[in-house]
Amino acid sequence: QVQLVESGGGLVQTGGSLRLSCAASGSIASINTMGWYRQTPGNQRELVATITSEGSTTYKDSVKGRFTVSRDNAMNTVYLQMNSLKPEDAADYYCYARLMTWSLRWSDYWGQGTQVTVSS
Q: How far apart are CA 86 and CA 65, in angstroms?
């Protein structure tokens, strides 16, 4: 009943920028935390950035100062502005949301992923 759809991935050169978007839709009563994780072949999925309903943010150390996570509560959308991209940032990026449906149950949801490629 709930779907997360990411967009904005693509190919950029080192030092370039991308803006990822993720829109949640369905029977949503409230969204707590939203954010972004990324994964490369052979590695675990890792946290990139999260933002709570109160606006508190967390970031992976290596992206601090370069990435900014934000959200539009009215549109149930989370964004990730990525600047000064490095080859190490190349990965599949997954949108995450912890939300309450109208069934009054907290649940975790994931998007299908969007690919970010950074060329040197």
A: 13
Q: What is the pLDDT of residue 107?
A: 92
Side chain identity, residue 66: R
pLDDT tens for 60-72 read 999 999 999 999 9
The predicted-structure confidence for 12-67, as pLDDT tens digits, reads as follows: 999 999 999 999 999 999 999 999 999 999 999 999 999 999 999 999 999 999 99
In b/e form, how buried is each residue of 59-91, taking b as 16+ CB within 10 angstroms? beeebeeebbbebeeeebbbbbebeebeeebbb
CA gap 28, 102 in Å, rounded = 6
Residue 97 structure tokens: 């949301």
CA 16 to chain centre: 18
What are the tokens at 25?
A: 């839709």
The residue type found at 8 is: G
Q: Is 11 helix (H, G, I), strand (E, B) or coil?
A: strand
Using only C-alpha atoms, the chain has a radius of gyration, in whole angstroms, of 14
Q: State whether the Cα torsion 43-51-56-99 is positive or negative.
A: negative
